[in-house]
Write a structure and sequence with these properties.
- The chain has about 220 residues and is an alpha+beta fold.
- The chain has helices at about 15-35, 60-70, 70-80, 125-140, 170-175, 180-190, 205-215; strands at about 5-10, 35-45, 50-60, 85-95, 110-120, 145-155, 160-165, 190-200.
């Protein structure tokens, strides 16, 4: 089973260049070394902060626990505080409503994520709505639903519906669509509470080392 380890923070004003150097030269290599695979780095362009989201994946909670118990993880977590504010983290597991066999780096994609809690007693009805209406409608509008996640550790809301698009224009078109307004009204009025959403842009800090690594293998 795939688990995501998401870290959230804001970059201290004036520390952007130092932060970028630290992220590329130390943070990303350390995450890989201890067994947490960096698969995405995003900046929140619409929605609540913190503004930076770092996404890592592991294939078991035991491996995540082992990684977090290392001296490298402890040192890295302390060091990054020199460059960031409002740090928090979340551990997410798949809900099973979206097929998630593996989770790898997705190059040059934007995210439209929805966050909410399911109303107690509405779980089965919600699951049917997601399968038969919400997922196919979102994908018809150009937002592919690439993950359904449940927060097992960290701040709520508990459910994260992860949508992926190639650019912000496709997301904007979908959000202006009457079908999006219809399914969101049904979702928020019938099945969930504490709803919010965010649009995330790729920072390039995860993708760049990955692309360079691929290029170097060709030499």
């Amino acid at each position: 089973m795939i688990f995501l380890f998401n870290q959230h923070w804001d970059i201290i004003p004036g520390k952007e260049e130092e932060y970028t150097q630290y992220a590329i030269n130390h943070y990303i290599p350390t995450m890989k070394k201890i067994g947490i695979n960096p698969v995405g780095g995003y900046h929140v362009v619409v929605g609540q902060g913190p503004r930076v989201v770092s996404v890592g994946s592991v294939d078991s909670l035991q491996k995540l626990q082992k990684a977090m118990e290392t001296e490298e993880y402890e040192r890295m977590t302390a060091e990054i505080q020199r460059y960031v504010l409002n740090y928090c983290s979340r551990i997410l597991k798949p809900t099973g409503r979206v097929k998630t066999d593996k989770y790898t780096i997705q190059l040059r994609v934007w995210k439209f994520n929805q966050y909410f809690n399911i109303i107690p007693g509405k779980e089965d009805e919600y699951a049917n709505f997601v399968k038969n209406d919400h997922l196919p409608t979102m994908e018809k509008m150009g937002i592919k639903m690439t993950g359904g996640w449940h927060a097992v550790v960290g701040p709520g809301p508990l459910i994260v519906a992860e949508g992926t698009a190639t650019n912000i224009v496709d997301i904007a078109k979908a959000l202006d669509n009457d079908e999006y307004k219809r399914i969101t009204k049904i979702l928020t009025s019938t099945y969930v509470t504490d709803y919010s959403s965010r649009i995330l842009a790729p920072t390039g800090r995860i993708e760049l080392p990955y692309i360079l690594g691929k290029m170097m293998k060709g030499f």
